[in-house]
Amino acid sequence: MNEDRYNKVDGLMGAFQQFSRLNWQKTTMFGLKPSEIRVLITIRMAKKRTGKDTLTVSELSKLLRVTSPTITQMVNSLLSQGLVVRTSDSQDRRISAIQLTEQGEQIAGQAIAKIRETFKGMIDHLGEDKSDQLIELLNEVHAYFEQLNGQADYS
After folding, report:
1. How far is it, in rounded angstroms, from Cα 41 to Cα 97?
2. What are the residues facing 98 on neighbouring strands?
């Protein structure tokens, strides 16, 4: 199969990740909640991007755009399932680093592969031109809502 036709998958994944808080994908995967899968994937993708094995709770919070207590709750669940480990900073015990276990790494990889297959199917369905247009349009819509949210008056 010609893999070149799927070079837009990462672009589509990035565009749709922005909508993750809308819970467009509500199904569980590997017995985990979608939010827990997102945490595993975020840690794995950050490792791939930066080479760092760990992320702090605040870094995860920023990347996933949820509060630190929400991340802590998800991390605690993943800890109890043996998918992540938490280590405390030697100089500031309030800072904890989260790292995938071997099992967490495996599940994150399987989840990414499954999601990529879904987006490959979307590319097959839409075609490359429409997929390009969709990526562009979704990014424009996201930028619009980010701008709109920045102008919101909550006084």
Report:
1. 16
2. 55, 86
User: How far does CA 132 lie from the centroid of its chain?
Assistant: 21
pTM equals 0.73
Q: How many CB atoms lie within 10 A of CB 30?
A: 15
Q: 97-128 pLDDT, tens per residue?
A: 899 999 999 999 999 999 899 899 999 999 99
pLDDT tens digits, one per residue of 18-47: 766 555 456 667 889 888 999 999 999 998
- DSSP state, 29? B
Question: Phi/psi at 96 (nearest 5 deg)?
Answer: -125, 140
Helices (H), 34-127: 34-50, 57-64, 68-80, 102-126
